[in-house]
Amino acid sequence: MDTLNIAILGCGTVGGGVAQIITEINHDLSIRARTNIVLKKIVELSPSKASERFNLPLGLFCGGGKDLTGTEANEYIREIISSGEIDLVVETIGGKSDFVFNICLDILNSGKHLVTANKALLAERGKRIFGAAEAKNVKIGFEAAVCGAIPIIKTIQESFTGDKVLSVSGIMNGTSNYILTQMQDEKLEFSEALKLAQENGYAEADPLLDINGGDAGHKLILLIKLAFGIDVSKEDLSIIGIENITREDIDFASEIDAKIKLICYAKKVNGDIYATVRPMLVKNSNFLSDVSGATNAVRINNQYSGVHFLVGKGAGSTETAMSIVSDIVFIARYGDKIQNIPVNEESNLAESHKFVFPYLISFQTGNIPGTTGFITTAIGNQEINIETVSHNRHKGEKAMFSVATMPCTLGQIENAIQKIRSEKPGMLLSEPKIMPILY
Amino acid sequence: MDTLNIAILGCGTVGGGVAQIITEINHDLSIRARTNIVLKKIVELSPSKASERFNLPLGLFCGGGKDLTGTEANEYIREIISSGEIDLVVETIGGKSDFVFNICLDILNSGKHLVTANKALLAERGKRIFGAAEAKNVKIGFEAAVCGAIPIIKTIQESFTGDKVLSVSGIMNGTSNYILTQMQDEKLEFSEALKLAQENGYAEADPLLDINGGDAGHKLILLIKLAFGIDVSKEDLSIIGIENITREDIDFASEIDAKIKLICYAKKVNGDIYATVRPMLVKNSNFLSDVSGATNAVRINNQYSGVHFLVGKGAGSTETAMSIVSDIVFIARYGDKIQNIPVNEESNLAESHKFVFPYLISFQTGNIPGTTGFITTAIGNQEINIETVSHNRHKGEKAMFSVATMPCTLGQIENAIQKIRSEKPGMLLSEPKIMPILY
Considering the entire predicted model, what is its pTM? Predict the structure, then answer.
């Protein structure tokens, strides 16, 4: 039987989970891979902590188990990259720094396969990484980079090859979903729910990338690449986070049988790709509304096979590590026959003001007769059909105005708001919130 | 670029869908497969009908488009099997007859790959089929055989290789799920809902295999083979269909916030496999309770990555065909590196009376004081903890007695019922229904 020698860079939550699984079920993995899967070396700054947490022999760690300085760790990484003995490197350091970027490039350039959960790096600097792999005919496993344990990468790459993806959407950030679920179920304000998420280990000390939609955006960029074959940069995507969602928004969603979820959404229409990450009102009749807490869910709509849902753990130690280990087995099995990413296709990313959805628009107005007529006329003048209007939740001189529209573009809505602003300065007493509605 | 020449046997709902997809997106498929995918021949008794329905040129059909007798069709099938030109055969005739069994064996023995949706054949006569493929090192694609469009086969075979499956369960028969959904939503009796399913094309003229759990059993046998590596025969499985579910059962389920679903369930406990197909009470808090109509859903619980759900179309023309076409691309990509089924593992199928679940037991009794005390004592004497008891829904002299238990074995419940029967003949006025409860 052949042998596949593996090194792991970074033995934290995910890397440690990989080492744990490879150690615990090594015999099964080797049988499945028809290749001896051998974990040779781990580079980690604090081996004793990792060894204890993941029950790993200290001898596996470069340096024999003693704590490493950054310089020492870097030297061991360089040794692994230049070693002829290692076939595959698991990069679980994370981040998109030049340091990690160069390590990944050098791994590939040295003719070694790379398996990683690093969504930021692949989404923002993936072109050169995938290019290097192509040039050296080595493989990149990145199942763990999108939605942790959910096997969405291989599902698109290997199971939907007999179809055409029409749209990809879903709940792809567990932290923001946990926060929104807490706001909904426990009647918390955003800041209270965020604090709870941090206390319970669902949010990083710096949760910015989770709550501003950046992390979800990285995943969507990778899914767009796989499903539609085009490269999208983060700057081109229309990304809105959950920072400005209030309890009042959540309560109002409940009133119309909906929940607010941070949704990733990409759809191909006549060759154009519409893509966005933003809070949406998900009707309770939609499957995604049931996805609560740290769970992730991906919805794929295909031309021939219709709608699919994949639901599972979007993060976690062995949960994410499982995807990395499965990638290792896949590379052991199929090696150079694997195509890392699909061939580029001709498509354009459409501008966000062209997105067609039914929308909910809400803002504060004065509690003044004539308001409803003026606003609904301005909306109607933009050829937008209105489904429901409410002008209520009065607070003193103010009231909340909410309009649910039939499908229209964001551009039409922005025009209507512009008209109201120019013809009735002072009618809008708050910045309008515009959220797509998913039925 | 290499070429993969394909023949399709049977151009009905599924086979026609395969021909349609291969024809419509041939260029994409060939790029993805890095192989020219060429549909060479179709054998079909009524080509003109199939040609019209799936928009296929008559020239693709053996015989040039004229209707074939059975003998003529068989001769063309033999020609294909002995042809050196065909690389892969799609068998979409269906059924487990000797006729189809021998065709599949001969395809494999002639060194050709086989792709099929034939769950009955693979579940009941699969051992020799897979053995023949092994002997000739050719591949069998059977993604379409389990839950139509849901990519559950490849998910277990290729995406969960870094994990250990603990349990597989789900709703795997769309017809019975449609019938149960109609009984629930439209307040229909079983026979009315079945008639509606047939009128709307959700049930075959002979729906026996759908409603008696046989079709779901075939799928479970294949999933047990993939997830746990053991061969199970249909006779060994404990299979109960939905024929005896009444509106009263459905109504009672609603009262306790549950829905009745035909559930496939297989779980590994201490090396033993527990497996069954039967109606279960699925609590509304469980994701599976939302899966209605013809949709299928599979739940996988893994040791390292926890719970996954895959939801999608369990049947249909291009829906099922998509899985076949994806198998063709997979075989074109990876050819002889593919492992058809996992290596056999040591496991025993446990007997059904050892199944541990919380159960609901319900039967009619006389409306007689002392009944509740006697029955609950008999149940308690079997070391079963009771969660709730109700003795209501009185009809004249009769009343419905229902007990929800804490987790216990079916054997314990059967002992309790046996005791009640022997000590109080006449107390049970109907055959007890015993349904597991899924929380």
Answer: 0.96
